[in-house]
């Protein structure tokens, strides 16, 4: 299952807290195909049917089935620039 670094956990929580329905909201990662190498990321109100849910210290990430399969052995990290822009990166465990 995907794991989050401490930085990614903090960034995800910070982003999701701004959502109108923050209590159940999370960051959803969607893969474009079964062997997904490109992903879309969006803040959503809740997981969709079939999504896997990764929760780390209050940070929720919803993984669409293709993304869940492709990211099973990955670690999500995040970086925030001085201007406040967020970049996510994936590494292997």
Tags for this model:
93 residues, alpha/beta, Hypothetical Protein Aq_1857, Chain: A, 7 strands
How big is the Rg? 12 Å
CATH class: Mainly Beta
Calculate the mean pLDDT score and round it: 92
Give the SSE string: EHEEEEHEE
How far is the N terminus from the C terminus? 10 Å
Strand content: 35-45%
Count of helical regions: 2
Largest beta sheet: strand ordering: 3-2-5-4
The appropriate CATH architecture is Sandwich
Number of strands: 7
Main beta-sheet annotation:
4 strands, mixed
Q: Provide the low-confidence segments as ranges.
A: none
The CATH superfamily name is HesB-like domain
User: Structural class, from helix and strand content?
Assistant: alpha/beta
Q: How many domains is the backbone divided into?
A: 1
In the CATH hierarchy, the third-tier topology is known as Hypothetical Protein Aq_1857, Chain: A
Characterize the quaternary organization of these chains.
single chain
Helix content: 10-25%
Shape: globular
How would you characterize the overall build of this protein?
The chain is an alpha/beta fold. The chain has one domain (3-92): HesB-like domain (Hypothetical Protein Aq_1857, Chain: A). It is built from 2 helices and 7 strands. The protein has helices spanning 6-16, 65-70, and strands at 3-4, 26-31, 39-44, 52-56, 59-63, 74-80, 86-92. The protein is globular and about 35 Å long.
